[in-house]
């Protein structure tokens, strides 16, 4: 039996998205960021072409594909220099969770709009004092009659200013055990008591970061996504796609930087031959390319496992893919800037800003150290240090 990493449809999707990305490119995204705006034109066109909702069910206006297809879209936009970070959040996390666990009403209200790009949804899990420890989440949800009351804080939440709602991870008391269990709630942006504050970031991106305050936010019963007793399963149903899509984001960025460096190395002549003829330049670029290709293989494996319904296998692979892609991206960007020398730090070539941006995949949505913890504990069976 022949194993096919990508089907003809996948390759056609890559080519089509690459063509779209090329029409916009890095220059477009740079102008959007400088203006403090959002890439609305690219978002809308990607939606009209069916790319944003390619992973969502056909019956709700999506493409009927999976994370494998959505990761291709983000990777190719990234390789063209114009990645859409909100793809990680809105269709990948929120869309997936609602499609798998939402009520019929939630699916009808949100999935078609997420697919056609007319509405977006943010995702709120990270807290100031919890960091990567989701078990320390202090945002609480308590019942008040048929309503829920949410109280807590979130930090580093992307795109809240443009999102119509935020999928908030809170913890509710289990009536049987008294322990707190994770639950997911759709919180409308204009809900009373739901406040946001933009965080001043050195990282300049089109998607802004926010701290959220939930001060006794009252929500109706239908704001709860899925079964309150299956919160952990529902939570990880969104976190695995998040890691896979972060890998796609990183691989695309690394490919973009590498392509700029390769073009430069072919053309730049200091002595007799182009600098790319020298092994000191060529070999590190070749190594960076190999690392990106290896990371993509793990990303494809993770997407395949997830789309096949193997949540446990996907968890391990998604973490590994995110780790490998983050490392490969940082290495590719660093080597690309170094290849251009002083030119690598100029606005003309547009690589210097990626030095900061490339570290995102090392830090978010979970740090490389926590992934190493996961692999050492879950895969290797070593004892925990905490």
Structure in words:
The structure is a single chain. 51% of the residues lie in helices and 14% in strands. Strands 1, 2, 3, 4, 5, 6 and 7 form a 7-stranded mixed beta sheet that branches. β2 and β3 form a beta hairpin. The model has no long low-confidence stretch (mean pLDDT 94). The protein is an alpha/beta fold. It is globular and about 80 Å long.
Task: State the secondary-structure class.
Answer: alpha/beta
Q: Unreliable stretches, pLDDT < 50, 5 or more residues?
A: none
| Fraction in beta strands | 5-15%
Work out the radius of gyration: 21 Å
Measured between the Cα atoms of the first and last residue, the distance is: 44 Å
Spell out the key features of this protein:
386 residues, alpha/beta, seven-stranded mixed β-sheet
Topology of helices and strands:
Blueprint (H helix, E strand, L loop, with lengths): L7 H27 L5 H9 L18 H13 L6 H16 L2 H13 L4 E4 L15 E5 L2 E12 L6 E9 L6 E9 L5 E5 L10 E11 L11 H37 L11 H29 L3 H30 L12 H5 L2 H4 L4 H12 L7
Parallel strand pairs: 1-4, 2-4
Antiparallel strand pairs: 2-3, 3-7, 4-5, 6-7
Helix pairs in contact: 1-3, 3-6, 4-5, 4-6, 6-7, 6-8, 7-8, 8-11
